[in-house]
């Protein structure tokens, strides 16, 4: 019975600190952060910077992942959305999926105790 | 701690083994003979040095007459007490012929045998093994050296570089104890010179560190982990872990450098020609080939042949020559320079500055030459402030390298980006010095900018250039920080950057510096993800910084313009100092630039810079040239005669340039970024400028001028500069009849010229 969720957020890179602080203020103790690239309805830049090997069609973003209990799911999504918003296009998306099992490696704790 | 203690441990092990041996001997049947067995030490123990965690490397030698069961019992009689006492023993039991067989196959065994030492039993058995081992080693020296090189490479792949790792393996890492043993073995082949005394101190430092590590951990591992560095440092009497790691890093670098040099020497080695062969093989020649004033090539290395006291710039001339040819700078020349060169002239002569930039821009080849200079402590004669950051560790996970090596790596990456900037010389120098502020209290960007100013002034850079470099160092982290932490869509973000960096030259330099710094730090700090964010920021800043960035057309005096109006041909030599300045005025015509450039090249005058402009149907040109090394002095009148001939088409310039180029370079060139031709079009004035950036080579301007003329355009003004080994030329062009070019045509011309430059390797 799924009582945990994985919340994934794709946000603008410079918003990372704001979102991190907001989550910590909400009581979230851990998260995973990684570099990502992508596009949505905002297309990437079509200029090619002279001499560089990359064409910027994919826009750099940051991926943030947090494990939460289902009861907290909506509240945390709300926290992320508020902190990540800048009002301009390219702010990103947040979504959640149910999670079957979570284990803490060091202690072996399972389920909600491992969050 | 130290050699005495290690020797003492070795003696006591010898005594223990001797007594165990005499007991074991009683187990050998009398028929086999008491002298049928011997015990020898090899490897580190063979050299008579034992750290607490060292293995005992033992070789049991027998004459083949002992029954197997008795032999086994005898050997075990010795081994078990050792194992029980906690020794780690690496042993083998062999006859002499078996030893030879295995040594023939396995280089590591052969190497270990070179340190063989009798411990107990029949001396003859050990002596014969010793002499055969050395003979075989010498006989197959070439093969062993190649194998040692292979092992060394494998080790460095596995265990990294001792000089730069945060937690190195003192024995296995490159530049560590195993490499020292290998050097000793190479010395014994008698095939190449190995200056073992140079690594004596390094060996002592590393052995002491290893011994301390064993004492601290109580174990036999050789990896000096972060955790143990403080205790080891204390035990050895260093101020702190940083001082310990600094000494280890320097030792490792000395070992590594000597290994590189020795292997390079080996590559140059050819066996002596057979008795009746009259061909002497390539690099075994005895002659030194002179390549620049006071600089020669001998057996594949660049040497200083000139007088360092009279002409101190020869040091940088040699370094630049070596790096630009991709061959090493001789270790002997550097040692000699260290003795003879007490100080370097201040400010640096122009030529020395140019050579320094040429050295930095040479790419991979630069690293060895820089290391050669650094090993001989010449870098601190050139840049006294370098001493403080040499081998300075950066004790965080972000950086792979020590501060000095990181800056050298940054310069290395910058050499790939020289085409992206209009002042490659400033890029290279900033890259080399950008972290000079590290290791001092405060913000290292700000401190660095303060330190860099006197360095640049000492090198003789003009004030404008000094402040550009200061700005670059002060803000070398700006772009990365802003691009990842601030909203690029927000105008205040862009404005804040523009306030600090307000001109196109500096922003393009800063961009290239950020890329180089990031790449040199490694993929913890730089990735295409970050690169695209930074590029986005730079594009936005460039849009905001006003100005198209057209270089101003050169200015000339009224008298010069008057001479132009006369329509005569004029040539005068204005001053002969470090460099020769020529004023040339001639009636303008398509292809004039190429013609005059060719004329200068044929007369063995190398163009360093030029300013040209057309006034009233005549072109006024000011050229700065450097006469070729052994070119005879030409008088003004002789030059003018030659110029007149050239203008009348009486000199076959194309042919003569081909001859000069063919005789000039005999070694294959180092890889360099390809030439770039860009168009800048100013809508307001309708001026079109071609920006050409390329690696400097003989006859380049002649070639470029020809390509321009063949495209059907005319050069109205030109700004030609050679910065180190990079040529940066800006040409104001129009159609032949003087009309401005439209953008499409200009782009087509630029592309065609770029293709021609890339295809034409003169």
Description:
Chain A: GO terms for molecular function: ATP binding; enzyme regulator activity. The complex is a heterodimer of chains A (115) and B (762). By secondary structure, chain A is an alpha+beta fold. Chain A has helices at residues 16-26, 73-84; strands at residues 4-11, 32-38, 59-69, 92-99. Chain A has a single domain (4-114), classed as Alpha-Beta Plaits. A 4-stranded antiparallel beta sheet of chain A has the order 2-3-1-4, covered by helices on one side. In chain A, α1 packs antiparallel against α2 (73-84). Chain B has 762 residues and is an alpha+beta fold. Chain B is built from 31 helices and 15 strands. In chain B, α4 (96-105) runs parallel beside α6, α12 (314-325) packs parallel to α14 and α19 (424-433) crosses α24. In chain B, 44% of the residues are buried. At the A-B interface, β2 of A face α25 of B.
Provide a short characterization of the protein structure.
The complex is a heterodimer of chains A (115) and B (762). Chain A has 115 residues and is α+β, with helices and mostly antiparallel strands.
Keywords:
heterodimer, A: 115 residues, Alpha-Beta Plaits, 4-stranded antiparallel sheet, 2 helices, 4 strands, 20% helix, B: 762 residues, Beta Polymerase, domain 2, Four Helix Bundle (Hemerythrin (Met), subunit A), 4 domains, 4-stranded mixed sheet, 14% strand, phosphoprotein (chain A), N-reg_PII_urydylation_site (chain A), transcription (chain A), enzyme regulator activity (chain A)
Looking at CATH, which topology of chain A would you report?
Alpha-Beta Plaits
Unreliable segments of chain B (pLDDT under 50, ≥5 consecutive)? Answer: 276-284
Query: Which two chains share the most extensive interface?
Result: A-B, 21 and 22 residues
Radius of gyration of chain A: 17 Å
Structural class of chain B: alpha+beta
Helix-strand category of chain A: alpha+beta
CATH architectural designation of chain A: 2-Layer Sandwich
Q: What share of residues are in beta strands of chain B?
A: 5-15%
User: How helix-rich are the residues of chain A, as a percent range?
Assistant: 10-25%
The main β sheet of chain A shows up as: 4 strands, antiparallel
Beta percentage of chain A is 25-35%
Count the helices of chain B. How many?
31
Percentage of residues assigned to helices of chain B: 40-55%
H and E string of chain A: EHEEHE
- Count of domain modules of chain B: 4
Overall 3D shape of chain A:
elongated
Catalogue the unreliable spans of chain A: 46-55
Give the mean pLDDT of chain B: 89
Largest beta sheet: strand ordering of chain B: 8-9-11-10-14-15-13-12
Mean pLDDT across all amino acids of chain A:
87
């Amino acid at each position: 019975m799924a009582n945990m969720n994985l919340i994934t957020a794709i946000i603008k890179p410079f918003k990372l600190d704001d979102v991190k602080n907001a989550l910590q203020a909400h009581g979230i103790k851990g998260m995973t952060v990684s570099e990502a690239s992508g596009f949505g309805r905002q297309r990437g830049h079509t200029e090619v910077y002279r001499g560089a090997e990359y064409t910027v069609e994919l826009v750099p973003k940051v991926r943030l992942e947090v494990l939460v209990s289902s009861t907290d799911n909506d509240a945390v999504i709300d926290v992320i959305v508020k902190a990540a918003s800048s009002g301009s296009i390219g702010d990103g998306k947040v979504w959640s999926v149910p999670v079957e099992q979570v284990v803490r490696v060091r202690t072996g704790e399972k389920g909600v105790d491992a969050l | 701690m130290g050699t005495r203690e290690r020797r003492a441990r070795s003696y006591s092990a010898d005594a223990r083994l001797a007594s165990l041996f005499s007991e074991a001997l009683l187990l050998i049947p009398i028929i086999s003979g008491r002298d049928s067995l011997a015990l020898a030490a090899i490897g580190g123990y063979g050299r008579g040095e034992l750290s607490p965690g060292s293995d005992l490397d033992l070789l049991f030698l027998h004459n083949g007459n002992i029954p197997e069961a008795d032999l086994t019992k005898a050997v075990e009689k010795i081994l078990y007490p050792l194992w029980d006492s906690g020794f780690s023993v690496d042993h083998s039991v062999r006859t002499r012929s078996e030893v030879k067989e295995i040594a023939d196959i396995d280089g590591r065994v052969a190497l270990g045998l070179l340190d063989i030492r009798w411990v107990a039993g029949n001396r003859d058995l050990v002596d014969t093994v010793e002499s055969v081992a050395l003979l075989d080693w010498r006989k197959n020296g070439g093969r062993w050296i190649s194998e040692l090189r292979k092992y060394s490479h494998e080790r460095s792949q596995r265990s990294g570089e001792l000089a730069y790792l945060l937690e190195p393996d003192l024995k296995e890492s490159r530049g560590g104890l195993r490499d020292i043993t290998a050097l000793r073995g190479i010395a014994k082949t008698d095939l190449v010179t190995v200056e073992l005394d140079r690594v004596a101190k390094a060996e002592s430092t590393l052995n002491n560190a290893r011994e301390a590590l064993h004492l601290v951990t109580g174990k036999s591992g050789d990896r000096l982990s972060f955790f143990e560095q403080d205790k080891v440092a204390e035990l050895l009497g260093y101020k702190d872990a940083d001082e310990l790691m600094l000494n280890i890093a320097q030792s490792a670098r000395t070992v590594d450098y000597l290994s590189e040099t020795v292997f390079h020497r080996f590559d140059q080695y050819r066996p002596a020609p057979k008795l009746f062969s009259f061909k002497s093989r390539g690099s075994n020649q005895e002659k030194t080939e002179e390549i620049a004033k006071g600089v020669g090539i001998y057996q594949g290395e660049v040497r200083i042949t000139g007088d360092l006291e009279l002409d101190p710039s020869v040091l940088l001339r040699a370094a630049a020559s070596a790096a630009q040819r991709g061959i090493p700078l001789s270790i002997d020349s550097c040692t000699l320079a260290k003795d003879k060169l007490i100080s370097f002239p201040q400010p640096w002569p122009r030529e020395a500055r140019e050579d320094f930039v040429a050295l930095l821009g040479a790419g991979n080849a630069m690293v060895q030459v820089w290391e050669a200079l650094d090993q001989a402590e010449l870098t601190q004669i050139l840049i006294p402030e370098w001493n403080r950051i040499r081998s300075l560790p950066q004790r965080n996970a972000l950086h792979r390298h020590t501060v000095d090596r990181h800056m050298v790596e940054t310069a290395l990456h910058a050499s790939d980006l020289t085409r992206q900037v209009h002042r490659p010389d400033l890029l290279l120098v900033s890259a080399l010095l950008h972290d000079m502020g590290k290791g001092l209290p405060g913000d290292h960007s700000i401190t660095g900018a303060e330190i860099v100013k006197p360095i640049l002034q000492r090198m003789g850079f003009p004030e404008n250039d000094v402040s550009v470099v200061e700005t670059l160092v002060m803000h070398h982290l700006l772009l990365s920080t802003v691009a990842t932490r601030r909203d690029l869509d927000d105008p205040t973000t862009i404005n804040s950057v523009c306030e600090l960096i307000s001109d196109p030259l500096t922003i393009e330099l800063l961009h290239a510096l950020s890329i180089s710094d990031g790449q040199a730090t490694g993929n913890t700090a730089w990735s295409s993800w970050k690169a695209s964010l930074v590029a986005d920021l730079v594009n936005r800043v460039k849009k905001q910084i006003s100005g198209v960035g057209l270089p101003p057309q050169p200015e000339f005096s009224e008298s010069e313009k008057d001479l132009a109006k006369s329509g005569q041909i004029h040539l005068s030599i204005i001053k002969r100092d470090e460099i020769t300045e020529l004023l040339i005025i001639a009636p303008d015509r398509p292809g004039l630039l190429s013609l005059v450039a060719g004329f200068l090249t044929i007369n063995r005058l190398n163009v360093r810079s030029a300013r040209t402009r057309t006034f009233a149907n005549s072109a006024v040109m000011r050229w700065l040239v450097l006469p070729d090394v052994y070119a005879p002095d030409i008088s003004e009148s002789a030059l003018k005669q030659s110029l007149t001939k050239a203008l009348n088409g009486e000199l076959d310039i194309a042919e003569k340039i081909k001859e000069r180029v063919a005789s000039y370079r005999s070694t294959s060139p180092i890889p360099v970024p390809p030439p770039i031709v860009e168009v800048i079009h100013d809508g307001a004035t309708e001026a079109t400028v071609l920006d050409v950036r390329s690696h400097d080579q003989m006859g380049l301007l002649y070639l470029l001028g020809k390509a321009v003329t063949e495209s059907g355009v005319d050069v109205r003004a030109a700004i030609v500069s050679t910065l180190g080994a990079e040529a940066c030329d800006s040409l104001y062009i129009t159609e032949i009849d003087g009309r401005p070019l439209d953008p499409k045509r200009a782009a087509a011309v630029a592309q065609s010229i770029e293709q021609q430059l890339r295809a034409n390797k003169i």
